[in-house]
Design goal:
The structure is a single chain. Helices cover 50% and strands 7% of the residues. The chain is mostly helical and 107 residues long. The strands form two sheets. A two-stranded antiparallel sheet has the order 1-2. A two-stranded antiparallel ribbon has the order 3-4. Strand 3 and strand 4 form a beta hairpin. The longest helix has 12 residues.
């Protein structure tokens, strides 16, 4: 998995590292658990922006009781029925199915 520092993400987003850290605090972006917000998966960015539906999906997972570690694991776990991972499905604009699955897991 390719990861980026907050400074690298800031350059790609055209913003400041402080703004990236605020996105992490606001749970609109997620770092690798245990990395101290120092490693942000490159897959969470696309076309110079945070994946469009990632912030909402992170909220669904948090509201569903997922810990950061569980949410991160779920986002990157292969799912043959998608196919691929939930993150890849978001990147492919298949966010409705991913969100539906996250909601079902929270029940």
């Amino acid at each position: 998995m390719d990861t980026l520092t907050p400074a690298e993400v800031a350059r790609l987003l055209g913003t400041s590292p402080n703004r990236v850290r605020q996105l992490l605090r606001d749970r609109k972006l997620m770092a690798v658990p245990g990395s101290g917000n120092g490693k942000i998966p490159a897959e969470f960015l696309q076309d110079g922006a945070v994946l469009k539906h990632l912030p909402g999906l992170l909220t669904v997972l948090q509201d569903g009781g997922f810990t950061d570690e569980e949410a991160f694991d779920w986002l990157f776990r292969e799912d043959e029925s998608l196919p691929g991972t939930p993150v890849q499905a978001l990147r492919d604009n298949r966010h409705t199915e991913v969100t539906r699955r996250a909601q079902a897991l929270a029940l």
